[in-house]
Specification:
heterodimer, A: mainly beta, B: 9% helix
Chain lengths: 81, 310
């Protein structure tokens, strides 16, 4: 979930793999109106996931996935200067 | 040793609509009306007018950022990680293309994809004819089972040829007509990750299109590969280009150290033959040292030709 510094959802943020333990499809997800997105991790392991949205500084989330693929993270995007 | 019985053709074409009635090269590419930019020595001659280096501070922050709030589900945990695989290798060599209204840049389309569960994605496609674009299989068919409601043909794709941020020089169109192959839709095999989007409006007559071909290993390994597409780490809807010598090939894939990012899935990987641009693969995956495309083989050439004539 992508939120701004006021806690409001950031829709249409682009979410994509930056680093992964295996080759990953180079398609990017978009957050919905609630700032939510589900990005599937193809294998258990360590990932870095990038987020970018107009008007905000890009961010990167580090994630480690076990056998359970589901993972929920909230990231607050900072307004761009 | 004889051929095994019941050999399956994993390159057999499949589609979400009624079946179409019906070392090679397609007809020469078409530039379409108006201005066309040229290449030289196997790469695009990116002009000072039409492109800018990625001189602005990169959108990706330097160093490890703070993660604010985490709510793990299941066994997921957070921890410091070693870098494993990146899709931009070393310095980012991508060049932004702003002359997207001219050939060849206008053959590349920004795609906005709505999957079966309503989730939205971005990718890239490229024209091979008036109404057919080629893209990655995973752009038109979600093969993963991890989100069951998402699996299957996507609902629709918005095709925006030659997009340049908010500028849509050729407008846009929606498509619900897609093609891929059994190796992707049934097995989710990355070696079969390619597909097509067919649109009603013949926008390719305005944009022109790339040629495509199946080439020998030696031809490919001697070639410079070019990629232009719409990465998600750059400002929304901007087209970015990079090129590099092809690194290696297998029977069904092409590998290269060309900088790419999520959103460029489906981009053409193309080479020059004299002044003509021929796609040799469909960009699909980011990897540790090299990124990769689904290679156009003789069998796949047949599929692309068929999809171009549906």
């Amino acid at each position: 979930m992508a939120l701004d510094e006021a806690g409001r959802p950031v829709p249409w943020a682009r979410v994509y793999f930056v680093e992964a333990p295996v080759p990953v499809p180079e398609i990017a997800a978009l957050t919905n109106d609630a700032g939510e997105v589900t990005l599937e991790m193809p294998e258990p392991g360590s990932y870095r996931v990038g987020l970018a949205a107009e008007g905000f500084e890009a961010d990167v989330v580090e994630v480690e996935i076990g056998e359970e693929a589901a993972y929920l993270s909230t990231v607050t995007l900072r307004q761009a200067c | 040793m004889g051929m095994p019985e019941n050999t399956i053709d994993w390159d057999e074409s499949v589609t979400n609509v009624a079946a179409p009635e019906t070392a090679a090269k397609s007809a020469k590419p078409q530039t379409g009306p108006g201005e066309a930019e040229s290449g030289a020595d196997g790469v695009e001659s990116v002009s000072a007018r039409g492109a800018e280096l990625a001189a602005a501070p990169p959108m990706m922050p330097v160093g490890l950022p703070e993660v604010t709030q985490l709510r793990p589900i299941g066994e997921a945990t957070y921890g410091a990680l070693d870098a494993v695989l990146e899709t931009v290798h070393g310095p980012d060599n991508r060049v932004r293309i702003t002359s997207t209204g001219v050939y060849p840049w206008r053959v590349h389309a920004s795609l906005r994809i709505t999957a079966a569960d309503g989730s939205m994605w971005i990718g890239t496609g490229w024209f091979i004819g008036p109404r057919t674009l080629i893209t990655a299989g995973h752009v038109v068919y979600i093969a993963s089972n991890r989100v069951p409601a998402r699996r299957g043909w996507v609902r629709r794709v918005e095709v925006i040829p030659g997009r340049n941020e908010s500028d849509r020089p050729f407008g846009s169109t929606l498509s619900g007509r897609f093609y891929s192959v059994r190796g992707w839709t049934e097995n989710g095999d990355p070696e079969y990750d390619y597909g097509a989007i067919v649109i009603d409006e013949p926008m390719g007559d305005q944009t022109g299109w790339l040629a495509f071909g199946a080439f020998t290993d030696n031809d490919l390994l001697a070639s410079h590969a070019n990629i232009s597409g719409y990465p998600g780490d750059k400002p929304d809807g901007t087209q970015w280009y990079d090129h590099r010598q092809i690194d290696s090939v297998t029977a069904r894939k092409v590998f290269y150290d060309i900088d790419t990012f999520g959103g460029q899935s489906g981009s053409a990987v193309y080479r020059f033959i004299d002044s003509d641009r021929f796609a040799v693969g469909i960009h699909a995956y980011g990897g540790a040292v090299t990124n990769s495309a689904t290679r156009i083989t003789a069998r796949r050439f047949q599929n692309l030709e068929a999809w171009n004539n549906v």
